[in-house]
Amino acid sequence: MPEITTIDELATGAANSRRPKLVCLGLSAFDVTWNVERLPSGGGKSRAIDLQEGGGGMAANASVAAARLGADVQFWGRAGKDSAGRAMHEELTILGVNVDHFRLFDGARSSVSGIVVDAAGERMIVNFRGGALPVDPAWLPLDTVRDADAVLADPRWPEGAHALFTAARSCGVITVLDGDMADAAVFESLLPLTDYAVFAAPALAAFAGVSNTEQGLLFAQARGCRLAAVTLGEEGVAWLEGTALHRVPAFSVDVVDTTGAGDVFHGAFAFALGAGLPVAEAFRFSSAAAALKCRHAGGRAGAPGLPATLSFLRGI
Q1: How far apart are CA 203 and CA 178, in angstroms?
Q2: Which of 112, 182, 192, 222 is 20 to 30 A from residue 204's alpha carbon, by CA?
Q3: Residue ranges of the domains in the chain?
Q4: Using H for helix, E for strand and C for coil, what is the string for 208-238?
């Protein structure tokens, strides 16, 4: 896809039906979310004021965010052939994501998350990552990766991510890594195949063994990725290009729920890169999409469309 240089050109491309083609690989989890006045501390009982159920997971949420923005997006992943797996498969289809290669396996157990969200939008998450999910990625249609504009993976299925990124590198397709918490060995394996590694701040600190942002990014970049970045919540996003540290501040919004904001950020970032935006504009665009998501409850419900995101940016 030809490079564009501004947000306005992105809008023009959308009007001309130029849809980035993306593949998102990794975790799909079934989320059960309780809304409470205050996050619980210690034992005892807490009263929930609302309850929601639906699909979640980093790469799966990113695929929904990209589809909402207008991408032609596939989700590649694994789940059990159980009630949670079937529900996730159906929901992604309804939300416009191609799930031809989201496989449900007999005898496997799907990933399920319990999420507690307080009145200020902060949350606690407990995740069961699933059981007996096959690790061999040989069934993935890797020969089709050449048709994508960008691919994104989270670290929850390292074997699949490694296969996807290897295939993408072989044909010059952009690779984006959602750097959530993972064993160091997973990052050591994937970073040499990664164009854009976008870490969550706790994950980068744990991997690098330092709390300093610039030192952590230098550590990650030295492991082979072309660009290392970190999301910093209310402080925005920072990244290294060579040895130069850059930042985009977070947008100020009335926060209802931060669940899924990082996933929306990653999906929007892959969308923007796939559409041809340069790095700084892609980070600004994805920051806006994540901010808009925080205005709404749920990990997916608040993922914005392209018109809303562009309107928000133009109003800044």
Answers
A1: 10
A2: 112
A3: 7-27+58-76+137-314
A4: HCCCCHHHHHHHHHHCCCCEEEEECHHHCEE
Six token digits for residue 72: 């032609």
Please, which pLDDT band fits residue 202 given cuts at 50, 70 and 90? very high
Amino acid at 102: F
Contact 81, 104 (CB under 8 A): yes
By the 8 A CB rule, do 91 and 66 touch? no
Tell me the C-alpha distance between 4 and 90, whole Å. Answer: 35
* Per-residue pLDDT tens digits for 106-129: 999 999 999 999 998 888 999 999
1-10, 135-144, 191-200, 300-309: least confidently modelled range: 1-10
Sign of CA dihedral 93, 99, 102, 105: positive
The CATH class of 7-27+58-76+137-314 is: alpha beta
Treating both helix axes as pointing N-terminal to C-terminal, what angle do 279-293 and 306-314 enclose, rounded to 10 degrees? 110
